[in-house]
Amino acid sequence: MDFEPYRGELVAYCYRMLGSFHEAEDLTQETMLRAWKARERYDPARASVRTWLYRIATRVCLSALEGRARRPLPSGLGAPSEDPGAPLTPAVDVPWLEPFPDARCDVEARTDLRLALVAALQLLPALVAALQLLPARQRAVLVLREVLEFSAAEVAGQLGTSVAAVNSALQRARAALARGDGIDAVGEPVDAGTRAVVGRYARAFEAADVAGLVRLLTEDAVLEMPPVPLWYRGRREYGRFMERVFALRGTDWRVERVAANGQPALAAYAPERGAGHRLHSVQVLTVAGGRVAHNVVFADPRVLAAFAPSA
What we know:
Layout: H1 7-18, H2 21-37, H3 49-65, H4 107-110, E1 115-117, E2 120-122, H5 125-131, H6 136-147, H7 152-159, H8 163-179, H9 192-206, H10 210-215, E3 217-225, E4 228-233, H11 235-249, E5 254-260, E6 263-271, E7 277-288, E8 291-298, H12 301-307
Parallel strand pairs: 3-8
Antiparallel strand pairs: 1-2, 3-4, 5-6, 6-7, 7-8
Helix pairs in contact: 1-2, 1-3, 2-3, 3-7, 6-8, 7-8
């Protein structure tokens, strides 16, 4: 039995469940190992290999989530800061949400990297963070039914429950997400217009053009930067913080376009005295109405390693 063709989509599924790319890789490997050990007990008359693998992966994820705190973004933990000079002290004790590096996933799996919420198929960081607020089993039901399009009967088999319980959990999950702030993060499809906005943002960033960056923002644009628990809302506060960034780290930045969570993203390289440039952060942008509405700046070294050119 060859399980490898399913590895990419299983990593994406485990990421949706855990909010961590690194844990998703580990749990996918655990799923593959369990499947291999149980291969003699697999009955093709009861389920396809894919359905069977998702049943194992779901159990692995639910076990991993027992007693586990959710993975948040800074905006989910408190009010926005109004002090652009606040200390940038990482909160190392918080299990922060991680981005999904699209380049580490095969092309076929990347086509399924967007979470179905309302009429949009997106996997924006704020939406993944909202998903983390759901109880683990509701989370599994929502992803298996809405994203992966398994039938209610298949999901009931994967979770060891009834079809009625699956339908009830799905209704509760939909209602909970509709009440949450994450639903407001739905952005535009990744098309030529979105890519053009990201391109203009990248050029303004490389030019250290704060005024140019601000012109590209929505009025209530959000900037956050895990593992630092601070976040800012509004064009004015966003611009004031960017002025601080360029004052502290210099203006000779380099930007490389990457992709994360099925969205356009930027790998930002900060100038290093006498040493060229160093990967400083990965910025995952949400574009809405032709402007940048949300920028999640990931700077954790473990996250950066997944986006480094040698990764």
